[in-house]
Amino acid sequence: MTVKTRFAPSPTGFLHVGGARTALYSWLYARHHQGEFVLRIEDTDLERSTQEAIDAILEGMNWLGLGWDEGPYYQTRRFDRYNELIDRLLAEGKAYKCYCSRERLEALREQQMANGEKPRYDGTCRHGGHEHPAGTPHVIRFKNPTDGAVVFEDHVRGHIEIANREMDDLIIRRTDGAPTYNFCVVVDDWDMAITHVVRGEDHINNTPRQINIYHALGAPVPEFAHVSMILGDDGAKLSKRHGAVSVMQYRDDGYLPQALLNYLVRLGWSNGDQEIFSLAEMVSLFSLDAISKSASAFNTDKLLWLNQHYIKTLPAEEVAGHLEWHMRDQGIDFGRGPALAEVVSLYAERCQTLKELAAQSRYLFEDFSAFEEGAAKKHLRPVAAEPLALARTRLAELADWRAGAIHEAINATAAELELGMGKVGMPLRVAVTGVGQSPAIDGVMALLGKDRVLARIDMALAFIAERAQG
Predict the structure, then answer these.
(1) What is the DSSP letter of 381?
(2) How confident is the model over 238-294, as pLDDT tens digits?
């Protein structure tokens, strides 16, 4: 048997964190078994589904690197298939036409709730016996079994058993002729030969109904794994008020897809105490039966820690590819400066996000016309003029413009003037970066290039002279 899983989002909004984790688990399980992964867009909610949301889902999946083997399929393009099978169930007596009005159903619901009963359809039309003119509005209901129970073993929840008497006859085709979600899902999973369904725990109540439809159609029933919800830092269900819940918002905030995938896989699944997993390790080790049934709490600090880990340990060229987006987003012309991979190597220890890295390295690509006020006030004082001027002379003499040689020139300046390194290094840092904090100044100067460094020291010396006169 070929293992085949699917991710089937509804295109009514962005790809959220919970959906991304479900997609990841489904993808990993298929890859672990050398199986196939299907992407299906469940767009039967015609009023709320949008092309913008479809594009956001595809963009999120591509950014995460969760490629699919089949699809994307769209349910709205399969209505003929669904209706063909609904008509078959009608002919076989496994479904029936229901003419009950909305008013009657609402009154029934209110009465049942008033009596403390579970709201459910009472089966008025199940056995027929009522004459209705052709063309009378009606829905099609599935004739759910009334005896016995639905029993299945969930990979996460374990043994689940639901008595059939607890379920009513659900609508499988609306008055307007559109098939409904629960029926479409069953047909899709059957037609697409899905063997394992991984989805959120909010679908558990749908599963027994769907299993009965599989049986009525004579279709094989897939295995199920219902994963728990993700909670925010405060223990409440993750929502917009917790900040970035859209996958692409994490991209915008400067996270690497590798970090988010690593974080998401650990939100409910574990392999001993291991925290850091390459994608290859995830594929090798993943198992549905190792998913916890407990809800997981989102921890932004841990995600930041993971993100910095990947910024530091992934090949700099690979990180640089992702950094390009942030450079463009912040309007930085990165063609006028050092290679981005070199920038990543120098700044990785200081930055937790790519957004931060782009902002901090801006002065490598753009000249500035003013120094940070606090840094200038502290370090570009008249006393700094002599070490800056001597450092400039020594730097101008360098034929080898590399960090090691630059470091030696700065050391020689400090030694000649009998000053601590801070008395030379800090004025140089403010002079060439415009700010008071940066990576090792010799590394920064090496990336900036000799001409830009000398020009900026000249600007700092002019600034000190002007301030002294003023």
Answers:
(1) S
(2) 776 666 578 999 999 999 999 999 999 999 999 999 999 999 999 999 999 999 999
Look up residue 431 and give its two tokens: 């002079």
Assess contact for 89 and 217: CB atoms under 8 A: yes
Average pLDDT over residues 125-151: 91
Collapsed DSSP state (helix, strand, coil) of residue 364: helix
Alpha carbon of residue 377 to chain centroid: 43
pLDDT (tens digit, 9 = 90+) per residue, 399-437? 999 999 999 999 999 999 999 999 999 999 999 999 999
φ, ψ of residue 39 to 5 degrees: the values are: -105, 125
Q: Which residue is it, tokens 């932004």?
A: 300
Tell me, letter by letter, the H, E, C secondary structure of 5-55: EEECCCCCCCCEHHHHHHHHHHHHHHHHCCCEEEEEECCCCCCCCCHHHHH
Q: In 3-state terms, what secondary structure has residue 63?
A: helix
Judging by beta carbons within 10 Å of its beta carbon (0-12, 13-18, 19+), is residue 201 exposed, middle or buried?
Answer: middle
Measured CA to CA, the distance from residue 268 to residue 290 in angstroms comes to: 8
Q: Is 119 helix (H, G, I), strand (E, B) or coil?
A: coil
C-alpha torsion sign, points 390, 392, 398, 403: positive
Annotated catalytic residues are 240
Kindly give the pairing relationship between strand 70-74 and strand 139-142.
unpaired
Q: Is 163 helix (H, G, I), strand (E, B) or coil?
A: strand
